[in-house]
Amino acid sequence: MALPPQDERTLPAVVLRDVDQRPLEQVLAELQSLVDQHGHVVVVCSQAVPPGVERRLRTVRALLETDRVALFQPPLPPLGLAVLVRQLRQLASCDLSPGILASAGRLLTHYIHAGAVLGSVTHLDRVPVDLKAHARSWVPGSQFGVVAHPAPQLVRIGPEASLTGPEFGTWLLVAKGQQAADWVTGTLAPSWQVQRLREMALPAESPHWWGTGRLTEFCAYLPDLSVLYQLVTSVRQSTCHWCGMDVIGDRCVFCSATPPVYDDGAAGRALGHRRDPALGRRGERRALTG
């Protein structure tokens, strides 16, 4: 799902449709075209997609034999995922390298508060649900407030019901489904002290993700590009020892490599050398091939 631009600098998104159902050649050609056009591609994919989608994406990436395609599957519900993608589209207009931009997705995920108002939690498997909540799902008119990220929360909506929200200023995006949004707009938004509230259509994957079509989904997020940019650039940057990308955090999104642990003990001294961390995979290839 591609949200409308947040501002005039927000770059457009490309939606890869029916990845697991179209012929492999078509998906391969589409992704190759994107790599040729943009140089690097970050594919953001929900953890709730069918297994065939992830397998197809990894197959295509392997067939392309490139380290310029990153596959990123953050633990966010559909609306939160769409918000994260738009934030990355905002940052794509800045002077960030592909590795830093891709790594920014993992960082910004921590600042997204995503949840929903559900008419039933009987089929909800993304958030822990106790037996009492399951039983209350059968009571006509029951509503539940749920936060799936960054920490799971579940309450039955009533006069005293509340959900812990962000401790910083955010905007709130609301996607109305078959459940009334009055509690979100009238109670949750003021308690979270959101600075602005906007509405949009419910993502197509939301009923499957939340286990019911009786829902209204919401997401609190940082809208300002300058704040997003400051967050990303304030984190220490390093170079991936394997693919050579500039990254933030402890894992490269392009090759999934983590920083190596080197043994400086007697064995290393006995060999008389240590592997150069800056060499990386490409350097090793050059060293072997001359």
Shape: globular
- Assign the structural class, choosing from mainly alpha, mainly beta, alpha/beta, alpha+beta, or little secondary structure: alpha+beta
* Largest sheet entry: 6 strands, mixed
> How many runs of DSSP E, i.e. beta strands?
10
Q: Which architecture name of one domain does CATH use?
A: 2-Layer Sandwich
| CATH class descriptor name of one domain | Alpha Beta
Q: What share of the residues lie within helices?
A: 25-40%
Query: So how many helices?
Result: 10
SSE order: HEHEHHEHEEEHEHEHEEHH
How would you describe this protein?
The chain is α+β, with helices and mostly antiparallel strands and about 290 residues long. It has a domain at about 115-220: Hypothetical Protein Tm841, Chain: A,domain 3. The protein contains 10 helices and 10 strands. It has helices spanning about 25-40, 50-65, 80-90, 100-110, 130-135, 180-190, 205-210, 225-235, 265-270, 280-290, and strands at about 40-45, 70, 115-120, 145-150, 155, 170-175, 195-200, 215-220, 235-240, 245-250. The strands form 3 sheets. A 6-stranded mixed beta sheet has the order 5-4-3-8-6-7, sandwiched between helices. Helix 1 crosses helix 2 and helix 3 (about 80-90) runs antiparallel to helix 4 (about 100-110). It is globular, with a radius of gyration of 22 Å. The chain starts with about 25 loop residues before the first helix and ends with a helix. Mean pLDDT is about 85; it is low at about 265-290.
